[in-house]
């Protein structure tokens, strides 16, 4: 994080509860702490508490209005990026239609992007930019097309097309072609991507905020994607990645092991990051889109159940923390069951047409009133409203 986090305001019990929920989530599923107080001290298994900034740091301008967060779940199956990719294409198309801008991209509307596993690849592609161009390099269509090209060949095989890609060493040809030498610093928006570091026995979060603070945490985007996707099944293995300056070494397995649903980490990053987001005081100042990876069989059923259980728990805790802002400020997209058939486009459309089970404050879970596609349209409306509010100020 860009600065040592600050504690919750003492004036409001709701804000205290919000900070406690996200602190526990982050301490348990992001940094591996047993004591949430360690989180507020700014320490982590990989870095000391933040002190003086190393060199000149360019911070984002203080943002009036709601901070818009995109979070994308990850996993090791070939289809794990399909629902998210299709949802992102649908959302981007809606934003273009509503604004009348055919060149609009998701990074124009979201302030922070987080992703794990295949979701991390999508997030990185959406915010990557050229060194001489502030515009994002890739659209949602480009990101989905990248996954589909790798999925088609091995969609029905036991190994899976995406798994075969992700087993390649860090900096493999596919990620090299997409990202080249771009690093975490070369992103149009702040990005957060988790993995699990076998070298230290704890989760690690790739963050543009850390990359800006010190070169020791600036990694090539191709290596970030390889790390968050590595070791996704029994036939794949961990990958070793190093920071751009070579001083930090990570022996990574996938983000799904550490944090398959990175929503809580992204929210905590914004709530506690007073340098980057000084005007945010609570969840009422956030607008969050969280996209799941769908459900289905995996090589290890126990691993799948455990990963989905953690992802569900994060969703429930986030929904509780948002309280009565749940419907207006937090949207969760998720599929129910495995997609039928072998065609990527048909499977994606099937998942978007579903009504998922969602968490309800103090009432457990119930079937959503809207389909995933309808939720995306409603969220696009909120994003455009937020952009218009900013332009009017």
UniProtKB/TrEMBL annotation:
Major enzyme class: hydrolase
Enzyme Commission number(s): 3.1.1.-
UniProt key word Transport: no
PNPLA domain mapped to chain residues: 70-267
Transmembrane segments: none
Homology family: Belongs to the patatin family.
The protein's name: Patatin
Taxonomic lineage: Eukaryota, Viridiplantae, Streptophyta, Embryophyta, Tracheophyta
């Amino acid at each position: 994080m860009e600065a040592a986090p600050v504690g919750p305001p003492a004036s409001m019990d709701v804000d205290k509860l919000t900070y406690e929920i996200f602190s526990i989530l982050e301490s348990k599923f992001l940094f591996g702490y047993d004591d949430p107080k360690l989180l507020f001290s700014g320490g982590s298994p990989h870095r000391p508490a933040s002190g003086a900034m190393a060199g000149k740091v360019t911070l984002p301008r203080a943002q009036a209005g709601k901070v818009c967060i995109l979070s994308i779940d990850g996993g090791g199956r070939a289809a794990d990026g399909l629902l998210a990719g299709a949802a992102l294409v649908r959302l981007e198309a809606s934003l273009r239609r509503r604004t009348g801008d055919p060149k609009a991209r998701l990074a124009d509307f979201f302030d922070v992007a987080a992703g794990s596993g295949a979701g991390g690849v999508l997030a990185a592609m959406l915010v990557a930019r050229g060194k001489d161009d502030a515009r994002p390099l890739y659209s949602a269509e480009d990101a989905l097309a990248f996954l589909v090209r790798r999925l088609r060949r091995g969609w029905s095989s036991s190994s899976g097309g995406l798994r075969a890609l992700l087993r390649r060493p860090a900096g493999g040809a596919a990620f090299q072609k997409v990202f080249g030498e771009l690093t975490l610093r070369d992103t149009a928006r702040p990005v957060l991507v988790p993995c699990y570091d076998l070298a230290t026995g704890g989760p690690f979060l790739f963050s543009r905020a850390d990359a800006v603070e010190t070169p020791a945490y600036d990694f090539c985007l191709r290596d970030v994607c390889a790390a968050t996707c590595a070791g996704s099944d029994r036939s794949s293995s961990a990958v070793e990645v190093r920071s751009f300056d070579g001083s930090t070494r990570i022996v990574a397995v996938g983000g799904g092991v550490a944090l398959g649903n990175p929503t809580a980490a992204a929210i905590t990053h914004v709530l506690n990051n007073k340098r980057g987001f000084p005007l945010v005081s609570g969840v009422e100042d956030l607008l969050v889109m969280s996209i799941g990876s769908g459900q289905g069989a995996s090589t290890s059923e126990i691993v799948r159940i455990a990963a989905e259980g953690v992802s569900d728990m994060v969703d429930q805790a986030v929904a509780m923390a948002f309280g009565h802002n749940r419907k207006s400020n937090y949207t969760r997209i998720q599929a129910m069951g495995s997609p039928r058939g072998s065609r990527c486009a048909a499977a994606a459309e099937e998942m978007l047409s579903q009504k998922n089970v969602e968490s309800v404050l103090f009432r457990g879970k119930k079937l959503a009133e809207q389909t995933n596609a309808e939720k995306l349209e409603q969220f696009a409306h909120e994003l455009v409203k937020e952009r218009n509010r900013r332009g009017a100020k």
